[in-house]
Thioredoxin
Amino acid sequence: MRTNLADKLRTGISPQQFMDGMQKNKETFQSNYDAFVWDVASEREFFGSLNHRDDIRVLILAADWCGDVVRNIPVVFHALETAGIPTEVLILEENFDVMDEFLTLGGRSVPVVIFVDTGGYVLGSWGPRPKHVQQYMISFKQENPDREASDYAENMAIVRSQMIEAYGEGVDVRAAILKELRELISGI
């Protein structure tokens, strides 16, 4: 049975309302949003070509305290704005029921970008971070299954540092996010 989120459509806030209402990381988020440029014309053309699609909606689970939201969602917002896809943000703390349908490695991780049809049926999702960055967390979880282990926190700090480094200067990550979103949408 496919997941249906029809009851969540039209309950979120707009991307602009999310940005305006941020209590944490607002300046960094806005800076990342303002710094966005289309590095590859074909990517902009692809997302622009989606303006005729009236069968897709997007719900984004997000929290302003999350570094992955601050790094990734400005790119996602620009892609979806260019595509003309109606987009709503669901605040994590108000939508644990949705979050629990989209766990990452068994845990709650945001952002999650959820593509649904007009009836609310889930078509696909992306997140919480680009695959090349997420790979560090996958390896960490495989190598550190015991959260109670004495070195768990130390190892988590190391992997978080590696993930931040993998995010790099932004251009490569921006391209990775756009590529992954394009692949997902192309399959819808």
Remarks:
- The chain has one domain: 15-187.
- The chain has a mean pLDDT of 95.
- The longest helix spans residues 67-83.
- Helices lie at 15-21, 26-34, 41-48, 67-83, 96-99, 131-143, 152-167, 171-186.
